[in-house]
Design a protein that fits this description.
The protein has helices spanning 6-9, 13-18, 22-28, 32-54, 63-78. The chain is an all-alpha fold. The termini are far apart.
Length: 87
């Protein structure tokens, strides 16, 4: 007994792959499992940010990171050996 709605048929392929059970997703949003999922995502984000601090190959794509990099570059260029040492 599976019924589909017109809205479900209009979903893109990538949306169907990311969210294969949209009805179930909406039902779970009203439960404590959704809160657990949100907390897990936040914890993953915090760990990821900590990992970026110790990862020497971290890409600096965020605006505040680019601003910091530009500032450090200007300071380094003004030093004799073009090195950065906070004063």
């Amino acid at each position: 007994m599976s019924s589909t709605t017109n809205g479900e048929d209009q979903r893109s392929f990538s949306d169907k792959v990311k969210h294969p059970f949209p009805g179930l997703r909406h039902q779970l949003k009203e439960t404590h499992l959704y809160d657990v999922k949100v907390k897990a995502i936040h914890m993953k984000s915090k760990i990821g940010k900590f990992h970026n601090i110790i990862n020497p190959n971290h890409r600096h794509d965020e605006e505040h990171e680019r601003a910091t990099d530009e500032k450090r570059t200007r300071i380094a260029e003004s030093h004799r050996f073009e090195s950065f040492a906070p004063e």
